[in-house]
Amino acid sequence: MLTTQALVLFVVVSGVVSSQDATTRRMNDHVDKMKATIDNVYRMISEVYEVRDKCFNGSAGGYKNKSKDTSPVDIYAMRKDEKGGNYVNVEVPSTYYDCLKGLDPKVVPPEKARIWCIRVVLWQYHNDLEKGDYDDDLKEAYLLQYGDDKPKRNKRGTTTIRQIAPRPITSPLTGYRTRQEYRTLSVDQRNRFHAAMNTLYRDGTVTCFALVHRNALRTGGAHGGDAFLPWHRAFLALFEEALRRVDPSVSIPYWDSTFDDNMAAGPGFSVMWDNTHMGSPVGVVDEGPFAGWQARENPLERNVARGTGSLVRQARVDELLQLCLLDEFTLPWENTHNSVHVWVGGTMEDSMAAADPVFYMHHAFVDYVWEKFRQRQRAVCGVDPASDYPPVDPALPEHGPDRNMTGMTFLTNREGIADYWIANWFNYTDTPTCPSCGNSPDLYCDTDINRCVSASNFSFGEATIGPTAQGLGLAPPPGTAPQRATARPVSPASTTPKAATYADSVKTGGKPYEGSCSKDPYARSCVKRPQPSTPAELVNAMSLNKVPKPKPLDDVYERIKALLKKGERYPPGSEAKFFKMKPDEENDCRCLDKYIRDPLVAYVEKGRKLSKSGPKLYDTYT
After folding, report:
1. Residue 393 and which of 362, 463, 491, 568 are 20 to 30 A apart at CA?
2. For the range 135-143, what are the long-range contacts, defined as Cβ-Cβ under 8 Å and sequence gap of 24 or more?
């Protein structure tokens, strides 16, 4: 029988042993975790060596070297440096150095340039730019299939979106919705749309949809054939359904880019690209509601109005709405759609295009015009649009009417032209027209062309260059009737003798610069250079800073220069470009690289208003 002292000792010893057992278990847990970590390190090193081995087998990615050097990428992991630390050594082909040469060290710091170019070289070897066999095992390519009723998260934290497609597909779970032009949204509506987009970005849904679209670009079935419009109609409707599960008041607004194309100053000046709308127009999107977004491997980027691509022209829409059959409508409308992708540039131009919110608004407008075409088919042509799916093209079997949609195999291509999308899912408000232009503060009616035009992202102010034009004899004096800007205005009568110019001297056979002026032609006493005598000459003189610009225009000039400089800070993304201009489309040469010249041409030569409140050139004199 235990004494009291022995019992106490037993309890104490038992407690110690128990404590030791707990400590031992914790230590064993830590050892197991360390072993798992070490296993992970070995696994990662093995993967690195696998990449190296692939690269040793030649140019696995089909990348074309700019030089004769075809040496592979060689990676040696976990070497020791002179201080005993670990580092990774990478031996690369000359394409790495080609990449470095293309980066301005004043813009991209050398350490960032080296890391970037290593990424570019490895990506080029990992992906076949010629054959297009990207990510064959990409699970995200099939995330729109039917699946479990409840959303799940995969190991990378992205939300699977199988549950978005309702069963049956003929009606959405979040109810009917109406899409309207983006700039007619109220501030609250616009902010709610932005917030819902950001929610889907954070939970990975935007990336999932972008990957589904990327897979469709690469494997076919959604572009370059008859399924283009029906595939994107279904794709957009499902993305909109995801948005409305975040906020049921939201729908995808459409971006009528004809309003930007109509701008006198040029479409790059649109309010679309300010920080309360879409944000940064050039370079990495680091301002506005979508600042900091990533497009998988790369940051979200744009490169608007750089002289390539073009926005939708109203004349093009009018031309296509004279047709009757889907077979003749699809290809030219898809080509126009491609041009907008190129004009926006950056991510919108590559195969991760659906990672930019602009993508969804652009495609909503593409669908809006198609719906207008379908209404014409029924009312004017006598064609049932729900039956108008062209016959199978043997060269494009994936676009056949009875083929399953790429990435959405619960639908056939034919189902994309069904009436239930408009009857049960969504419809559109008509795009705004003059004179009210939807009473939107972001639009106004340009009476010179009688079309709605986007407000400007840049303030041209209330200043006019009229006083300068009048001083040069290019504008009528106050109280007289205004002249057309394209005509040569009559100079006002004046008793003040006109200052002589060297052109006057040359005309009379004399040498304008003689004596002391021969050595110092810029002296105040010497004859002057000719002043601009036509609107076109005034534009050239202001563009070259030979004649001062009004301060508001000068401020715009400096802002654009700073914007383009900012866009040069980052190298181009590693994603392959997909969208290209087609032969029936033209590049829009009104680009930001011309700084202020396009607005000057519109303002001085054509007499157009540059902004909603800004005056015309001769308004001051009427």
Report:
1. 362
2. 135/215, 138/211, 138/215, 140/207, 140/208, 140/211, 140/212, 140/215, 141/211, 141/212, 141/215, 141/219, 141/407, 142/212, 142/407, 142/409, 143/208, 143/211, 143/212, 143/407
